[in-house]
Amino acid sequence: MKVAVLAPVAWRTPPHHYGPWEQMASNVAEGLVALGVDVTLFATADSHTAGTLAAVVAQGYEEDRTQDAKVVECLHISHLMERAAEFDLIHNHFDFLPLTYSRLIPTPMVTTIHGFSSEKILAVYEKYATSTAYVSISHADRSPRLPYAATVYNGLRVNDFVYTEKPDDYLLFFGRIHPDKGTAEAIDIARRSGKRLLIAGIVQDAAYFREQVEPLLSDDIVFLGPAGPAQRNQLLGQALALLHPIRFAEPFGLSVAEAQLCGTPVIAFNKGAMPELIQEAQTGFLVDNVGQAVEAVQQIGSISRAACRAWASANFSQEKMAADYLAVYKELI
Amino acid sequence: MKVAVLAPVAWRTPPHHYGPWEQMASNVAEGLVALGVDVTLFATADSHTAGTLAAVVAQGYEEDRTQDAKVVECLHISHLMERAAEFDLIHNHFDFLPLTYSRLIPTPMVTTIHGFSSEKILAVYEKYATSTAYVSISHADRSPRLPYAATVYNGLRVNDFVYTEKPDDYLLFFGRIHPDKGTAEAIDIARRSGKRLLIAGIVQDAAYFREQVEPLLSDDIVFLGPAGPAQRNQLLGQALALLHPIRFAEPFGLSVAEAQLCGTPVIAFNKGAMPELIQEAQTGFLVDNVGQAVEAVQQIGSISRAACRAWASANFSQEKMAADYLAVYKELI
C-alpha cells in the first residue's frame, strides 16, 4: 500500500521542540513504515523519515519567519494533490485547507482532526464529510455535526519515555502556563497537600503568570520554565503524580499519556478526553475540584506505577496508533 | 463560450464602496455578458450580475467580520473548481490561491494579476506559469520573472462618469491619504501654484495625516474625507486638474482614468503605469518633481478636456476591456 502522509509546515517533522501536529504526523509515518507500508511524508525539506520525504518548503514558517505562511501552505498542499494518483491513500494531518482539493483528485483521503481552532472551520469539514473519512483523537473531541470513521488515540514512542519505579516526593504541573491548564489550581492542590510542586512549561498567558502564579512561587512551589526531552523524562518519571486540573475540554493531553508511560499516575479534572486517558483508581484519579484532588494525592500510594506504564503502552503507543490507522485505511480502500 | 469569472469575496461584487478587484471582476463579467458571452460570476451571494450568479459565501468577509477569511476563501474557490468542467474557461481575479487548484481541473484559466501584495507570492505565480495565462493590468506592472499572455487595462463604465466641459478653479487630490500617494506633495504643488486644493480619500496612514497633512489645512487646502460615487463624479469633473504625485510604481491608478473620463487632465509623477494612462501634453503632464508640477499647472489651459474624455473612453472602457479579454480567451482555447 502506498500512503502519502501530509504534515503541517509550521515546524519540522518531527519537531525540534514544539509542534504537536508535526509530531503525530511523524509518529504515524514512522509507525506505518515499521508495519511495512510504503510511506511518502510530505513535510518541510529539513524533516526526517524512514520513508520517502517529499518537500517543496525548505523550513517551517514558524522557524523561518521571512516566509509567507499562506504561500508555503498552498504550495505544500498542491504539491501532494498534483501527485495524488501515485498513492492509494492520503492521510491528512493539515487541518481543513487540503479538504478543498479532495474532490478534484482520484485518491481517498483520511483526515485526522487534531482540534478545532474555531467553530468557524466546521463549515469546511461539513462540506467534505462525504469525500474524506474523519478520525477523531478522542471520543470527547467529536463534533456532533460530523460523521467519523474512527477514533485513533495519539501514539507515542514508548521507548523515549523511561519507566521509573521509585519516584521522588514532588507533584508536577507540566504544560502551558494558562488558565485553561489550571496552573493556579495545581498550586492550590500542592499547598493544601503539603507537597512540593514543580511547574514546567512555556508561559502562554503572561498576565496570568504574573498575577496568579508568580506571587505564589517559593522554595516549595518552583517554576522551571519549558523543559526539553531529556529534562521532561526526568521530571515526569520522578514525580509522585502529575496534576492536570484543566478548565477546558482538552481533546487529548499528550503529557497525561507521557506521564503514565513513565509510570507516573495523573490526577486530572474530569473534562474532555481525561476519562479516556486515565483509568480511574488504576492509573490516576478523575476529580471535580481542588478538594477532591487533595484527597486523591493522599491516596496516590494505592496506584501501581507499573499499571500506569502498562496501560499507556497498550493504548498510546506509536505501534498501536499505526495499526489502528492501517485498519481505517483498509476499510476505506 | 461559457466563462466562469472568479471574484474575490472580501466585498460584494460590484462593491458598495471600496473593493477595486471586485469592481474589475464585475466590469469584466458585465462587459462579457454585453458581448454575448455566457458568464457565471462566482462572488458573494449579495452580488449582482446580468449573467448567472454562483455563490456559497453570504457576504464579504470585510463586510461581515464574524467570518473566517481563510474558510470562506477556500470554500468559494473550491466551489468553482468542483464545477470547472462546466466551463470553457475560468477567469481568475482572486490572486494566487486558485492557481494551486489549476492543475487538478480540465479547464484553462486566465489570471489577471491585479497587483503583487508581496514579493513572496511570486513563488506561486512562477510555479503555475505553465498552467495558467497571466494578464497584467499595465506594462509597468509586469514582473520580469513571469510570462504574460497580454496586458489588458482596467475598464470603467464610461457612462458613470459625467463629462464636464467647464471646470471650477480648484486642483484635486483623490486617493488614500498615504505617503505613497503624495498627499503632502499635492499640497505643496497647490500652494506654490496659488490654487485651491480639495483632498478626498480615506486616511490610510493616520500619523502621516496628523503630521504632514492636517497642519497645512486651511480655507484653500480642504480635506473632505472619503467620497462616494455621486460626489466623486462632481469632484473629479469640476477639477481644473487631478494632482497625482505618487511616490511608488503604481500598477494602474483608477482615479487617473476616471478623472480623464470626466474631462479632467492629470498631472502625475512619472512612475509606474502613468505613461500608459496619460498622453503627455495631450491629456495631462508627466513630471518628475513638485517644481515641474507647478509649471504643468500653469500650462493646464493648453489641454483639451474633450481629448481627455476621448482618450480615456477609447482605452479604459468596460467594453474595450471585455473585448480585449475575449481575444485572450480565444487565443487560449
From TrEMBL, chains A, B:
Matching InterPro entries: Glyco_trans_1 (IPR001296), Glyco_trans_4-like_N (IPR028098)
Positions of the Glycosyltransferase subfamily 4-like N-terminal domain: 23-128
Molecular function in Gene Ontology: glycosyltransferase activity
Domain Glycosyl transferase family residue range list: 166-300
UniProt keyword list: Transferase
Protein's name in the database: Glycosyltransferase involved in cell wall bisynthesis
